[in-house]
Each structure stands twice: as structure tokens, then as C-alpha cells.
Design goal:
alpha/beta; UDP N-Acetylglucosamine Acyltransferase, domain 1; Udp N-acetylglucosamine O-acyltransferase, Domain 2; 2 domains; nine-stranded parallel β-sheet; eight-stranded parallel β-sheet; 28 strands
Length: 256
């Protein structure tokens, strides 16, 4: 049985799952669907055409499903879709998509969005990511899986960040970041491989060694990008971890 505090407003039409807890002074819009076991602590606003999966925990003063900060938006039906078992901390904002950007902002499963993170319209975020305090994503960004963004990161629009990336605090990211990278800076620069993160995720010694060599060839050797990718393909292309790196570079036209 769900528990809805007497001071909260749940509009007619909203779909509330089983065992949902909605604390004081929350507002849930008419086109919202909240999955089983979600918790809205207090002072949470969920609006627009927004769908939450199961067992998400949302902290005070978060706003999800609000209108995108795009002057072309004309209140057309666009979406926010959130998966399951995410932790969304205080003051987070997640805006719905735009017609020109595909019409949907989505967040996968098992993510931690720390305080005052901003997810702009038409962003696509995968699973098991950590976005630290005051980090902001501009519109149309894509984050894959197992990414850790440091505090006060700013990510420019239309960028793609690959899996297992770790960024330092205060970074201004204005370029795509290939899988397994670590770095920092204003402007962001790849400094190496996220070795600690890969070890924690169970990557083998051999896989890490080949990832290190692939990064060296692309970022440190005196080679043109296409030549580096050719050598990486010929030497290590059979390993699935390297295949992910190569596919990322092809998809982003090597704009790392």
C-alpha cells in the first residue's frame, strides 16, 4: 500500500505503483507514472510525461520532467524516462526532451546523481554512473555505463562519454571521451587510463594491459588518428574491450 502525505498533491491521472512513499509537500503531475517502491522524500516535483521505474529514491527539492530550457520548445508532448534503483539527491533537475532532439530524456538503472546535478533535454544516460555535486550536462549528451564524473563538471552539448571514464573535479568537457579514460582540466584532456576503476570492475590484467597500449597508441604515439586506429584494430581488435574503444572512435569520428 502506498503512503502519500496529506500535504502533497498527486493530480488526477497520475499512476502510482505499490508501496510508494510520497513525503510532505510533493507535487506529482497528471501524466506521471511512478513505479513500485519509489520514495519521494519531500518537496519533490515530478511533472510532464515522466515515467519512473521501481525503487528510485528522490531527495528534497528535486525537479523531474520540467520544460526544457530550449526556446524552440512549444509544450509538445516529450518524455522523461527513468529506470530503476536510482538515487537522485537534493536539488537535481532533469528536463524532458524536445521534438528536434528525439523527444526523450532518459536515465537507466543504478545511477547516483549527487546534489544539484542538472540533466538537460534529450540526454541519454546509461547504468551504474555517478555524477558528483554540481555537475551539469547540456542538451543531447550521451553517457554510457560505469562513468564517474567529478564535482562541478560542465559537459557541452552533443557530446558522448564512453564507459568506465573517470573525470577530475572542476573539468570543463568540450570533447568526446573514449571508454576507459581518465583526465581533467579546463579544457578537459585525457591523461591516461582509469586503471583503478577497471580493477574494481574485475577487468583482467591482460585486458587492462591492452587497453593501456591502445590508449598509448592513440594519444601518445606520434601517429595520425586513422593510422593509430588501424594499428590498434590489427593488433588488439579481437578483444571485446578494445572493440568497444574502436567502435566508439568510429561512431564519434575520432573526435576525442
Amino acid at each position: 500500500m502506498s503512503q502519500i502525505h496529506a500535504t502533497s498533491l498527486v493530480e488526477n491521472g497520475a499512476v502510482i505503483g505499490k508501496n510508494v512513499e510520497i513525503g510532505p509537500f510533493c507535487h506529482v503531475g497528471a501524466n506521471v507514472s511512478i513505479g513500485d517502491g519509489c520514495i519521494l522524500k519531500s518537496h519533490v516535483v515530478i511533472d510532464g510525461w515522466t515515467t519512473l521505474g521501481e525503487k528510485n529514491t528522490i531527495y528534497p527539492f528535486t525537479s523531474i520532467g520540467g520544460e526544457p530550457q530550449d526556446l524552440k520548445y512549444q509544450n509538445e508532448k516529450t518524455l522523461v524516462t527513468i529506470g530503476s534503483e536510482n538515487i537522485i539527491r537534493e536539488g537535481v533537475t532533469i528536463h524532458r526532451g524536445t521534438k528536434g532532439g528525439g523527444g526523450e530524456t532518459n536515465l537507466g538503472d543504478h545511477n547516483l546523481l549527487m546534489g544539484y546535478v542538472h540533466i538537460a533535454h534529450d540526454c541519454h544516460i546509461g547504468n551504474h554512473n555517478i555524477l558528483s555535486n554540481y555537475t551539469g550536462l547540456s542538451g543531447h549528451c550521451t553517457l554510457d555505463d560505469h562513468i564517474n564524473l567529478g564535482g562541478q563538471n560542465g559537459i557541452a552539448q552533443f557530446l558522448h562519454i564512453g564507459s568506465y571514464v573517470f573525470t577530475g573535479g572542476g573539468s570543463l568537457i568540450d570533447r568526446n571521451i573514449p571508454p576507459y579514460s581518465t583526465g581533467f582540466g579546463n579544457r578537459f584532456e585525457v591523461k591516461g587510463v582509469n586503471i583503478v576503476g577497471l580493477k574494481r570492475k574485475g577487468f583482467s590484467r591482460e585486458a587492462i594491459s591492452e587497453i593501456l597500449e591502445a590508449h598509448r597508441l592513440y594519444f601518445r604515439a606520434d601517429l595520425k588518428s586513422d593510422e593509430a586506429l588501424r594499428i590498434i584494430e590489427e593488433t588488439y581488435g579481437d578483444r571485446k574491450e578494445i572493440r568497444e574503444f574502436l567502435d566508439f572512435m568510429v561512431k564519434t569520428d575520432g573526435t576525442a
